[in-house]
């Protein structure tokens, strides 16, 4: 117990010291030597080299270690402490041995220009020498102390079995946790930070506070203000139009396949097959189907209309989405239907209940949790719509079908207004969180005690 508390204390010390640790970069060009200082948190937000991705891994692992030690999970805390210490040490080694650190090059190049070096090019900087402050090594020592204090016991057979039992689950999920931290948590944190900056994707972000959000929410004459409202409005429209069908169509298919008709496995494979295709393949295929010149729908079915302009474009978008997504929900519903005892249907049939009565009073209550799960997942997924409207309609028809993610990509990549795009993404994320929270509240309120 005491050693776990000491390990948690050392882990907390690592996190605190990390926030104040820093380094010095130095380079010489044309006999002019300049230096620059940068803290490790500032270095993290530069995200300018692969080795920097080890920083969030070290920090997140140490936070997990501290929590584990405080919960008296000494073995788990030891594991995460080791991961944190190794990641941090590996970062220090790799970053110091990089020939040219982009994070340090930008401030050093500005210092060289101020010192009189004209027409500076990147190839003129032969090497950047990195020197860590003493506090960095103290931070590494704190991580090592957390490892030492949390070192597990394995003298007896019971302790070895307990160690194996505690650490085996993490051996299976460790690869996922590492990649999740590096490729999900890190971009998410950096994306939120970028929303408070002015950034063009090439130079270092400049912190400007809430300026981007003020423009998006209150500057009615600004283009980005109009883009947010149009894009967010179209996104909500699509969610409202598509989500009911994302639930009803797969449910109908699952109920139909439950009858065990001849060839039902073939139909199940056919219904599920579209979910295996990429959105590009799906969208382009349906674009040919609805094409006014040689498409199946206008020429063979006789439905003459401009299917790529409102209001018909919304119909096409919903059809494409349902055809692409129905298979996944159908499989979930089939599994849920198989878990409902057939005795319930037989008893209801004996009592004279018809198909709809059995469906409403037996099938729906028996599938309550799968339905709520797929409802929440479908809403979140459709809020992130991007590929369908981009390839079917684009920004045509006065941007009538342009969703918010299209504006985010357009502004960030083409117009290079990454800070404003990040602010739009944060607002979209908040909307998804609010809607998901309301859904969860409704789901819990309908759950029997």
Question: Notable features of this structure?
Answer:
449 residues, two-stranded antiparallel sheet, 3-stranded antiparallel beta sheet, 20 helices, mainly alpha, MetI-like fold, 5 strands
Number of helices: 20
CATH T-level fold name of the largest domain: MetI-like fold
Nearest-integer average pLDDT = 87
Task: Find the count of extended strands (DSSP E, 2+ residues).
Answer: 5
How do the strands of the widest beta sheet line up side by side? 2-1-3
Low-confidence stretches: none
SS class: mainly alpha
Q: How many domains, in number, for the residues? A: 2
Q: What is the H level of CATH, i.e. the homologous superfamily of the largest domain?
A: MetI-like
Give the CATH class of the largest domain: Mainly Alpha
Q: Give the CA-CA distance, first to last residue.
A: 37 Å
N-to-C SSE series? HEEHHHHEHHEEHHHHHHHHHHHHH
Query: Helicity range of the residues?
Result: 55-70%
Envelope shape = flat
CATH architecture of the largest domain: Orthogonal Bundle
Characterise the protein shown here.
This protein folds into 2 domains: 193 residues, no CATH class; 232 residues, MetI-like (MetI-like fold, Orthogonal Bundle), CATH 1.10.3720. The protein contains 20 helices and 5 strands. A hairpin with a 7-residue loop joins strand 4 and strand 5. The chain has 449 residues and is mainly alpha-helical. The strands form 2 sheets. It has a 3-stranded antiparallel sheet with strand order 2-1-3. Strands 4-5 form a two-stranded antiparallel ribbon. The mean pLDDT is 87.
